[in-house]
Design brief:
The complex is a heterodimer of chains A (304) and B (327). Helix content of chain A is 69%, strand content 0%. Chain A is built from ten helices and no strands. Helices cover 74% and strands 2% of the residues of chain B. Chain B contains twelve helices and two strands. Chain B has helices at 2-30, 34-37, 44-53, 60-72, 86-121, 126-140, 143-157, 182-214, 218-225, 230-268, 273-282, 286-314; strands at residues 170-172, 175-177. In chain B, a hairpin with a 2-residue loop joins strand 1 (170-172) and strand 2 (175-177). The two termini of chain B are 17 Å apart. The chains are: A mainly alpha (304), B mainly alpha (327). Chain A binds chain B through residues 138, 142-143, 146-148, 150-151, 154-156, 158-161, 231, 235, 238-239, 242-245, 255, 258, 262, 265-266, 268, 270, 273-274, 277, 280-281, 284-285, 288, and chain B through 15, 23, 26-27, 29-30, 136-137, 139-145, 148-149, 151-152, 155-156, 163, 255-256, 259-260, 262-263, 266-267, 277-278, 281-282, 289, 293, 296-297, 300, 304, 326-327.
Chain lengths: 304, 327
């Protein structure tokens, strides 16, 4: 192979790979770059929470009940400052938010990945095989999507009870139908194209045609839906936890922190609820900004 | 049309029975409500008597059969906690929820369509951009947190509005309503705005997109060429043509407003069905949970059906039941 003549790259126009073009397109919007930067910071905080938090908010030995319900900026008895105040147990809110982000992001991402895999499989099967398989799957999807996601999740959690695994199951159940519908729609279009016909003419196995040829071409719209859905999942989890149906108090997400502070809101101790809410808002906004730009970049009709 | 209605009805009944079975299985698995209902000091005999009185000693299938027989005659069982028929408990709370949903929808429509029109007519102006930025924020903000911030600002800091309950109500045709008294209005203001926020953002986006498309159409140019005032062109010609998708979405969102009222009612302690559901889940009040679901699902099915039929009447191009109707 080494002695084959290689055409000198200098004579060719610079080839822009798909990734480089994607990066350049994405960077066109400053707002999206800001969103991406914010998202990276939030993800890092989530991953590094045990390292960067001033205290471990769930290690009871580190809590001092004398420090409970301190306002932001007040100092503890041993002299260090609680920048965002403390809750009723004397937990540092900043550390609580870091750990809460970790759980909220984890639940949101995990449920999205599983729902994506399940929805992808059903959507592809429905589009590729058609007929009664398609009708059955899409009827179930239609019926499910005609009910608001919060209602379905609420009922599931009422039945399943509290816990991280339970809320992930509820969020997967709520989300898979969106992916199934998106994948089916784009797979139906792709299936008509010549490369699929070519693959079939080559007598490739069905699994190979579906997964190696059909699937990669259905991915772009799916990536957009998945990004938006992570934000939805995080908001939904927070809402359910706020209603007391999501996570147990031992694993507080942002929603649970907000719920915990609700009872102190009326007596003017706003920070226990307010700052976790700001963290939640920033997370959802960062994801939405990135998703908006992804939608434009990955849409071939808008390609310049 | 008739065939479509019948097929739809059959499908709806199937969904209802399936839902009731799934929920019944699920609720059955949650836990033993007797633990919560009977005095902890009660002896074994008393517990057995209570279990039998509630019909909890029968097998699962027997319980489901009893439930189905009752449901067919409009009896969805008695609440374990209040010892009154679950259905009447829900119907008694339903007016509060419907009033809240209705007022929220009115707020969303009254603000959303004009703001969307402005943003669509002047998409690049400062006002247009601000409206769009606001609607993006409205999508990002979690409803329950907005509710908390509203309470924080208007109840705690400013002390203008009450943070919970319905306030004083007046009877209209035998149904208590809040929005006719000043006190009731003060009570409904925050929950309604809270619930309206998401739909408001949605309506702004829809109206803006529709307006941007409509102003480029020939009929608008023609209306302008005829010398009609801007007001008439926008108010009659543009509005009429963008209204079809908007009406559909409003209809479809009515159901989701009732579902999302669960959150708003919990925050503002609004005594409606949503709060009843959350309370019932916490108290393991099985009959009320099942009954709530059946009522809500029925409501949804009716709303979806009415919207589909209305849509086909507004836009003759849509044919029901055909390939395109299978959305």
């Amino acid at each position: 192979m080494a002695d084959l003549p290689v055409s000198p790259p200098a004579t060719l126009a610079p080839v822009i790979g798909p990734w480089a073009r994607f990066r350049a397109d994405f960077a066109e919007s400053r707002l999206a770059l800001f969103g991406l930067a914010l998202l990276v910071v939030i993800l890092l905080i989530g991953v590094l929470a045990p390292v960067i938090s001033p205290q471990n908010p769930y290690d009871l030995a580190q809590l001092d009940i004398m420090d409970s319900k301190l306002a932001p900026g007040e100092k503890s008895l041993d002299g260090h400052t609680y920048w965002l105040g403390t809750d009723d147990q004397g937990r540092d809110m900043l550390s609580g938010i870091f750990y809460g982000l970790r759980i909220s992001l984890g639940v949101g991402i995990a449920s999205t990945v599983f729902a994506l895999a399940i929805g992808l499989a059903f959507g592809l099967v429905a589009a590729y095989f058609g007929g009664w398989v398609d009708t059955l799957i899409m009827r179930v999807v239609d019926i499910q999507l005609s009910f608001p996601s919060i209602l379905i999740a609420l009922i599931l959690l009422a039945v399943l009870g509290q816990g991280v695994d339970k809320i992930v199951i509820a969020l997967i159940t709520v989300q898979w139908a969106y992916y199934a519908r998106t994948v089916r729609a784009s797979a139906l279009v792709e299936r008509q194209k010549e490369y699929i016909e070519a693959a079939r003419v080559l007598a490739l196995g069905q699994a190979r045609v579906v997964f190696r040829h059909l699937l990669p071409n259905c991915l772009p719209p799916l990536i957009v839906v998945a990004t938006v859905q992570v934000a939805h999942a995080i908001a939904l989890e927070a809402t359910l936890s706020f209603l007391g149906l999501g996570l147990p108090i031992t694993e507080p997400s942002l929603g649970l922190l907000i719920s915990n502070g609700f009872q102190y809101l009326l007596s003017g101790k706003y920070w226990i609820s307010f700052y976790p809410g700001v963290a939640l808002l920033l997370t959802i906004m960062a994801i939405n900004l990135v998703a908006d730009q992804l939608r434009d970049v990955l849409n071939p009709r808008l390609r310049r | 049309m008739l065939a479509y209605a019948i097929r739809r009805l059959g499908q709806s009944i199937f969904v209802l029975v399936l839902m009731s079975f799934l929920v019944f299985v699920g609720v059955f698995a949650i836990g033993d409500p007797i633990e919560l209902l009977v005095n902890p000091q009660a002896d074994e005999l008393e517990r057995v008597r209570a279990t039998a009185a509630l019909g909890l000693d029968k097998s699962f299938l027997e319980q489901y059969w009893v439930f189905l027989k009752g449901a067919a005659s409009g009896d969805l069982g008695k609440s374990f906690v209040y010892n009154v028929p679950a259905l009447s408990l829900i119907l008694q709370k339903l007016p509060a929820t419907i009033e809240l949903a209705f007022v929220a929808m009115v707020v969303a429509i009254a603000l959303g369509i004009p703001l969307g029109l402005v943003a669509g007519l002047k998409p690049d102006s400062f006002v247009g951009r601000s409206i769009m930025a606001g609607s993006i924020l409205g999508f990002s903000l979690p409803t329950f947190w907005v509710g908390l911030v509203l309470i924080m600002v208007f109840s705690v800091n400013l002390g203008w509005l009450p943070s919970n309950g319905r306030g004083s109500t007046t009877m209209v045709a035998g149904i208590p309503v809040s929005f006719l008294t000043a006190d009731g209005l003060a009570h409904i203001a925050m929950p309604a705005i809270n619930l309206a926020l998401f739909k408001l953002s949605l309506l702004i986006r829809l109206t803006r997109a529709g307006t941007r498309e409509a102003v480029l159409q020939d009929y608008v140019k023609f209306a302008r060429a005829k010398g009609l005032t801007q007001r008439r062109v926008i108010g009659v010609h543009v509005l009429k043509n963008i209204l079809i998708p908007i009406v559909t979405v409003i209809g479809l969102e009515l159901g989701s407003v009732i579902a999302f009222a669960i959150v708003t009612e919990s925050i503002f302690a609004w005594p409606g069905t949503g709060k009843l559901l959350i309370d019932s889940i916490n108290q393991l009040d099985r009959p009320v949970i099942v009954a709530y679901l059946l009522v809500i699902v029925t409501l949804f099915i009716v709303i979806n059906f009415v919207v589909d039929v209305l849509y086909s009447m507004l836009d003759p191009r849509v044919r029901l039941g055909g390939a395109a109707g299978a959305h």
